[in-house]
Amino acid sequence: MVVEITGKNLFTLTAFTTDNQDIIIKDVNSTDTKITARLFIPSSVNTGEHRFYIKTFYGETVIGFFVTSLKFEPDRLLLTADQTENVMLSIEPAIGSEYTVSIENNSPQIVTASETVTIPSDSGVSVQITGVSEGVAVLRFNGVGLSVTVTAPFEGKASVADSVSVRMPVLMRNNTKIISSPVSVGLYPEYSLMDSVSAQHMNTLNKSRTYFSSVSVQMPFEMV
Q: Which residues span the domain enclosing 118?
């Protein structure tokens, strides 16, 4: 990132540092009226207020600055073509003033969004994003990426092939009867379910011989 600080007699700059050693100052240039510094701020740097220490032949000063982060809710989107959803964008910590964010969209054929959005000083802002066609796009909010996946709308019928396995605790009585509670089974959008289920239980004779046998158990099914 690039930081510009304006003033007078800045060409005599002798020192430009910060109070956080993890912030990397790549290079600094100064003219009589402006200091231009290129910084790299790793993600490990804590958000909040930090300070620049500036020293010239004519004196020194301290300038405060904020390290903030943009937060998305949700942090990724799954859309279908022609579907519009909202993402809540906020800045942490709050900086006490409005903040305008530019939105870079290199995949307008996949998603659409506004070019800029302004975050209020005391809350987040809702950003509308619309799917256009199938694909994966990354929208960049001041360089911070939000992944958006767009799929084709679902068409046709859903079905479950083969069998559906339902497991639940059962109470065995004399190895012959089973008492069960209702079982909830969801099959969407259409279902066909028999009112019985095959269960396998273990028999133990004289604690020396164990074998398995299958029985058919009638159960009350609750469709959900």
A: 69-151
